[in-house]
Amino acid sequence: MTALVDEHPHLGVEPVLRELNIPSSTYYRWRQAETKPCERRRRDAELTGRIRQVHDESGGIYGSPRVHAVLKREGVHVGRKRVERLMRQAGLAGISPRRDKGFTRRDPDADLAPDLVQRDFTADGPNRLWVTDLTMIPTGEGPLWLSAIRDAFSRRVVAWETSARADADLVLTSLEYALASREVAPGELVHHADHGCQYTSVKLTTRLVRAGIQASMGSVGDSFDNALAENLWMVIKTECIRGRVFATRAEANLALFAYIDGFYNPRRIQKRLGYLSPIEYEEKHYAERAAAEQVNLKPRQPALTS
Protein backbone atom coordinates (compact mmCIF):
# COMPACT_ATOMS: atom_id res chain seq x y z
CA MET A 1 0.00 0.00 0.00
CA THR A 2 2.82 2.43 0.79
CA ALA A 3 4.33 1.60 -2.59
CA LEU A 4 1.04 2.54 -4.27
CA VAL A 5 1.06 5.93 -2.60
CA ASP A 6 4.68 6.46 -3.64
CA GLU A 7 3.84 5.63 -7.25
CA HIS A 8 1.10 8.30 -7.40
CA PRO A 9 2.32 11.26 -5.33
CA HIS A 10 0.24 13.68 -7.45
CA LEU A 11 -2.98 12.18 -6.04
CA GLY A 12 -2.08 12.98 -2.46
CA VAL A 13 -1.98 10.61 0.51
CA GLU A 14 -5.42 11.23 2.02
CA PRO A 15 -7.50 10.72 -1.18
CA VAL A 16 -5.76 7.41 -1.84
CA LEU A 17 -6.34 6.25 1.74
CA ARG A 18 -10.03 7.20 1.55
CA GLU A 19 -10.41 5.29 -1.72
CA LEU A 20 -8.79 2.20 -0.15
CA ASN A 21 -10.71 2.56 3.16
CA ILE A 22 -7.46 2.61 5.13
CA PRO A 23 -7.19 4.83 8.23
CA SER A 24 -4.43 7.40 7.99
CA SER A 25 -3.10 6.27 11.39
CA THR A 26 -2.53 2.79 9.97
CA TYR A 27 -0.71 4.19 6.96
CA TYR A 28 1.66 6.31 9.06
CA ARG A 29 2.30 3.38 11.41
CA TRP A 30 3.38 1.32 8.39
CA ARG A 31 5.55 4.18 7.23
CA GLN A 32 7.24 4.38 10.60
CA ALA A 33 7.86 0.62 10.58
CA GLU A 34 9.63 0.97 7.22
CA THR A 35 11.88 3.82 8.31
CA LYS A 36 12.34 2.70 11.91
CA PRO A 37 12.00 -1.09 12.06
CA CYS A 38 11.26 -2.70 15.40
CA GLU A 39 13.98 -4.34 17.46
CA ARG A 40 13.01 -7.83 16.27
CA ARG A 41 13.32 -6.83 12.61
CA ARG A 42 16.69 -5.22 13.23
CA ARG A 43 17.82 -8.35 15.05
CA ASP A 44 16.57 -10.53 12.19
CA ALA A 45 18.59 -8.47 9.73
CA GLU A 46 21.74 -8.83 11.86
CA LEU A 47 21.22 -12.57 12.28
CA THR A 48 20.59 -13.05 8.57
CA GLY A 49 23.93 -11.39 7.81
CA ARG A 50 25.80 -13.70 10.19
CA ILE A 51 23.84 -16.76 8.99
CA ARG A 52 24.77 -15.95 5.41
CA GLN A 53 28.42 -15.66 6.44
CA VAL A 54 28.42 -19.04 8.24
CA HIS A 55 26.69 -20.63 5.25
CA ASP A 56 29.22 -19.14 2.84
CA GLU A 57 32.18 -20.22 5.00
CA SER A 58 30.93 -23.81 4.81
CA GLY A 59 30.94 -23.62 1.04
CA GLY A 60 27.15 -23.62 0.99
CA ILE A 61 27.11 -27.03 2.71
CA TYR A 62 25.56 -26.32 6.12
CA GLY A 63 21.81 -26.47 6.63
CA SER A 64 19.98 -24.90 9.56
CA PRO A 65 21.06 -27.46 12.24
CA ARG A 66 24.78 -26.88 11.66
CA VAL A 67 24.36 -23.13 11.16
CA HIS A 68 22.48 -23.01 14.46
CA ALA A 69 25.24 -25.05 16.13
CA VAL A 70 27.95 -22.64 14.88
CA LEU A 71 25.99 -19.64 16.17
CA LYS A 72 25.53 -21.35 19.53
CA ARG A 73 29.29 -22.03 19.76
CA GLU A 74 29.88 -18.32 19.13
CA GLY A 75 27.58 -17.38 22.00
CA VAL A 76 24.72 -16.20 19.79
CA HIS A 77 21.41 -16.93 21.53
CA VAL A 78 18.88 -17.80 18.86
CA GLY A 79 16.35 -20.59 18.43
CA ARG A 80 16.74 -23.21 15.73
CA LYS A 81 13.28 -22.45 14.30
CA ARG A 82 14.28 -18.81 13.89
CA VAL A 83 17.44 -19.83 12.03
CA GLU A 84 15.32 -22.07 9.77
CA ARG A 85 12.94 -19.19 9.04
CA LEU A 86 15.68 -16.67 8.30
CA MET A 87 17.54 -19.10 6.05
CA ARG A 88 14.33 -19.85 4.17
CA GLN A 89 13.59 -16.15 3.73
CA ALA A 90 17.16 -15.53 2.54
CA GLY A 91 17.01 -18.44 0.08
CA LEU A 92 19.77 -20.36 1.91
CA ALA A 93 19.80 -24.14 2.23
CA GLY A 94 22.25 -26.96 2.84
CA ILE A 95 22.87 -29.72 0.34
CA SER A 96 21.38 -33.21 0.61
CA PRO A 97 23.23 -36.47 -0.10
CA ARG A 98 22.27 -39.03 -2.68
CA ARG A 99 23.24 -42.67 -2.85
CA ASP A 100 26.02 -43.82 -5.16
CA LYS A 101 26.97 -47.26 -6.39
CA GLY A 102 29.91 -49.26 -5.03
CA PHE A 103 33.00 -50.16 -7.01
CA THR A 104 34.83 -52.91 -5.10
CA ARG A 105 34.83 -56.43 -6.51
CA ARG A 106 35.27 -59.68 -4.61
CA ASP A 107 37.96 -62.27 -5.31
CA PRO A 108 36.09 -65.61 -5.09
CA ASP A 109 39.30 -67.49 -4.22
CA ALA A 110 40.47 -65.18 -1.43
CA ASP A 111 40.65 -66.09 2.25
CA LEU A 112 38.26 -63.81 4.12
CA ALA A 113 38.68 -62.28 7.56
CA PRO A 114 35.77 -62.56 10.02
CA ASP A 115 33.39 -59.66 10.60
CA LEU A 116 34.57 -58.35 13.99
CA VAL A 117 32.39 -55.23 13.78
CA GLN A 118 28.91 -56.67 13.13
CA ARG A 119 27.65 -53.23 12.05
CA ASP A 120 28.59 -51.66 15.41
CA PHE A 121 30.70 -48.71 14.29
CA THR A 122 31.52 -47.37 17.75
CA ALA A 123 34.82 -47.18 19.59
CA ASP A 124 35.83 -46.06 23.08
CA GLY A 125 38.88 -44.15 21.85
CA PRO A 126 40.98 -43.25 18.81
CA ASN A 127 42.77 -46.01 16.91
CA ARG A 128 40.47 -48.79 18.07
CA LEU A 129 38.45 -49.21 14.86
CA TRP A 130 39.36 -48.01 11.38
CA VAL A 131 37.05 -48.45 8.41
CA THR A 132 38.24 -48.22 4.83
CA ASP A 133 36.94 -48.43 1.28
CA LEU A 134 37.54 -47.37 -2.33
CA THR A 135 35.56 -45.08 -4.60
CA MET A 136 36.00 -43.60 -8.07
CA ILE A 137 36.00 -39.95 -9.13
CA PRO A 138 35.66 -39.23 -12.87
CA THR A 139 38.07 -36.78 -14.52
CA GLY A 140 38.89 -35.72 -18.06
CA GLU A 141 41.98 -37.95 -17.93
CA GLY A 142 40.04 -41.00 -16.79
CA PRO A 143 39.01 -42.40 -13.38
CA LEU A 144 40.76 -41.30 -10.20
CA TRP A 145 40.50 -43.91 -7.46
CA LEU A 146 40.30 -42.69 -3.87
CA SER A 147 41.19 -44.87 -0.89
CA ALA A 148 40.50 -43.50 2.60
CA ILE A 149 40.69 -44.74 6.19
CA ARG A 150 38.29 -43.31 8.77
CA ASP A 151 38.53 -43.59 12.55
CA ALA A 152 35.22 -44.77 14.00
CA PHE A 153 35.74 -42.87 17.26
CA SER A 154 36.10 -39.35 15.86
CA ARG A 155 34.96 -39.89 12.24
CA ARG A 156 38.35 -38.43 11.24
CA VAL A 157 39.91 -39.32 7.91
CA VAL A 158 43.24 -40.55 9.24
CA ALA A 159 44.70 -41.19 5.77
CA TRP A 160 43.73 -41.02 2.11
CA GLU A 161 45.47 -41.66 -1.17
CA THR A 162 44.55 -41.57 -4.86
CA SER A 163 45.70 -43.44 -7.94
CA ALA A 164 44.77 -44.08 -11.54
CA ARG A 165 44.49 -47.79 -10.62
CA ALA A 166 42.33 -49.45 -7.98
CA ASP A 167 44.88 -52.02 -6.87
CA ALA A 168 46.38 -53.39 -3.66
CA ASP A 169 49.21 -50.84 -3.78
CA LEU A 170 46.67 -48.02 -3.39
CA VAL A 171 45.06 -49.39 -0.24
CA LEU A 172 48.46 -50.40 1.16
CA THR A 173 49.80 -46.87 0.66
CA SER A 174 46.84 -45.34 2.51
CA LEU A 175 47.42 -47.81 5.36
CA GLU A 176 51.11 -46.87 5.55
CA TYR A 177 50.18 -43.18 5.77
CA ALA A 178 47.72 -43.93 8.56
CA LEU A 179 50.27 -45.93 10.54
CA ALA A 180 52.86 -43.17 10.13
CA SER A 181 50.51 -40.47 11.43
CA ARG A 182 48.81 -42.32 14.31
CA GLU A 183 49.99 -44.08 17.45
CA VAL A 184 48.69 -47.63 17.12
CA ALA A 185 49.18 -50.16 19.91
CA PRO A 186 49.61 -53.74 18.62
CA GLY A 187 46.50 -55.85 19.21
CA GLU A 188 44.18 -52.91 19.95
CA LEU A 189 43.15 -51.85 16.43
CA VAL A 190 40.58 -53.43 14.10
CA HIS A 191 40.89 -52.65 10.37
CA HIS A 192 37.45 -53.13 8.75
CA ALA A 193 36.84 -53.33 5.00
CA ASP A 194 34.63 -55.27 2.60
CA HIS A 195 35.54 -58.35 0.55
CA GLY A 196 37.08 -56.32 -2.26
CA CYS A 197 40.07 -58.04 -3.85
CA GLN A 198 42.34 -55.14 -2.81
CA TYR A 199 41.60 -55.85 0.88
CA THR A 200 42.03 -59.63 0.62
CA SER A 201 45.39 -59.26 -1.16
CA VAL A 202 48.49 -60.86 0.32
CA LYS A 203 50.25 -57.47 0.42
CA LEU A 204 47.65 -55.88 2.68
CA THR A 205 46.88 -58.84 4.91
CA THR A 206 50.60 -59.43 5.52
CA ARG A 207 51.11 -55.78 6.49
CA LEU A 208 48.19 -55.93 8.92
CA VAL A 209 49.67 -58.97 10.62
CA ARG A 210 53.10 -57.32 10.90
CA ALA A 211 51.53 -54.23 12.49
CA GLY A 212 49.50 -56.27 14.98
CA ILE A 213 46.21 -55.10 13.49
CA GLN A 214 43.12 -57.34 13.43
CA ALA A 215 41.53 -57.63 9.99
CA SER A 216 37.74 -57.52 9.78
CA MET A 217 35.50 -57.75 6.72
CA GLY A 218 31.89 -57.15 5.86
CA SER A 219 30.30 -58.36 2.64
CA VAL A 220 30.44 -56.72 -0.80
CA GLY A 221 27.23 -55.07 -1.97
CA ASP A 222 25.84 -54.54 1.54
CA SER A 223 26.29 -50.93 2.56
CA PHE A 224 25.31 -51.70 6.16
CA ASP A 225 28.34 -53.96 6.64
CA ASN A 226 30.67 -51.03 5.99
CA ALA A 227 28.28 -48.18 6.61
CA LEU A 228 30.77 -45.76 8.13
CA ALA A 229 33.02 -45.92 5.07
CA GLU A 230 30.05 -45.69 2.69
CA ASN A 231 28.86 -42.63 4.61
CA LEU A 232 32.21 -40.94 4.01
CA TRP A 233 31.83 -41.34 0.24
CA MET A 234 28.32 -39.92 0.44
CA VAL A 235 29.61 -36.88 2.33
CA ILE A 236 32.60 -36.26 0.04
CA LYS A 237 30.62 -36.68 -3.17
CA THR A 238 27.81 -34.47 -1.91
CA GLU A 239 29.92 -31.67 -0.48
CA CYS A 240 33.08 -31.76 -2.62
CA ILE A 241 32.47 -33.56 -5.92
CA ARG A 242 28.86 -33.02 -6.99
CA GLY A 243 28.38 -30.45 -9.73
CA ARG A 244 32.09 -30.16 -10.48
CA VAL A 245 33.95 -31.32 -13.58
CA PHE A 246 37.65 -32.10 -13.17
CA ALA A 247 39.76 -31.82 -16.30
CA THR A 248 42.71 -33.64 -14.75
CA ARG A 249 43.44 -36.01 -11.89
CA ALA A 250 45.66 -33.33 -10.35
CA GLU A 251 42.71 -30.95 -10.25
CA ALA A 252 40.56 -33.54 -8.47
CA ASN A 253 43.41 -34.25 -6.04
CA LEU A 254 43.65 -30.58 -5.15
CA ALA A 255 39.90 -30.40 -4.50
CA LEU A 256 40.08 -33.46 -2.24
CA PHE A 257 43.00 -32.01 -0.30
CA ALA A 258 41.19 -28.70 0.23
CA TYR A 259 38.05 -30.51 1.39
CA ILE A 260 39.42 -33.34 3.54
CA ASP A 261 42.44 -31.66 5.12
CA GLY A 262 41.22 -28.07 4.94
CA PHE A 263 37.56 -28.46 5.88
CA TYR A 264 36.29 -31.92 6.84
CA ASN A 265 38.86 -32.90 9.49
CA PRO A 266 39.50 -29.51 11.14
CA ARG A 267 36.25 -27.57 10.62
CA ARG A 268 33.22 -29.64 9.57
CA ILE A 269 31.08 -30.04 12.71
CA GLN A 270 29.02 -33.20 13.17
CA LYS A 271 25.95 -33.85 15.30
CA ARG A 272 27.27 -37.24 16.47
CA LEU A 273 30.37 -35.48 17.81
CA GLY A 274 28.42 -32.90 19.79
CA TYR A 275 28.75 -30.41 16.93
CA LEU A 276 32.54 -30.57 17.02
CA SER A 277 34.83 -31.32 14.10
CA PRO A 278 36.75 -34.63 14.10
CA ILE A 279 40.00 -32.95 15.16
CA GLU A 280 38.24 -30.93 17.87
CA TYR A 281 36.59 -34.10 19.15
CA GLU A 282 39.92 -35.92 19.44
CA GLU A 283 41.56 -32.93 21.11
CA LYS A 284 38.71 -32.81 23.64
CA HIS A 285 39.15 -36.54 24.32
CA TYR A 286 42.89 -36.25 24.93
CA ALA A 287 42.46 -33.12 27.07
CA GLU A 288 39.87 -34.87 29.28
CA ARG A 289 42.09 -37.95 29.59
CA ALA A 290 45.10 -35.83 30.57
CA ALA A 291 43.02 -33.98 33.17
CA ALA A 292 41.80 -37.28 34.63
CA GLU A 293 45.36 -38.59 34.83
CA GLN A 294 46.48 -35.44 36.62
CA VAL A 295 43.73 -35.91 39.21
CA ASN A 296 44.80 -39.52 39.79
CA LEU A 297 48.45 -38.46 40.22
CA LYS A 298 47.73 -35.82 42.88
CA PRO A 299 49.03 -36.92 46.31
CA ARG A 300 46.32 -37.51 48.83
CA GLN A 301 46.33 -35.66 52.14
CA PRO A 302 46.97 -38.00 55.06
CA ALA A 303 44.04 -38.47 57.39
CA LEU A 304 44.20 -36.44 60.61
CA THR A 305 44.60 -38.51 63.75
CA SER A 306 43.68 -37.37 67.22
From TrEMBL:
Record Pfam families: HTH_21, rve, rve_2
Origin: domain of life: Bacteria
Function: Involved in the transposition of the insertion sequence.
Listed InterPro entries: HTH-like_dom, Integrase_cat-core, RNaseH-like_sf, RNaseH_sf, Transpos_IS3, Transposase_IS3/IS150/IS904
Protein name in the entry: Integrase catalytic domain-containing protein
Domain Integrase catalytic: 122-286
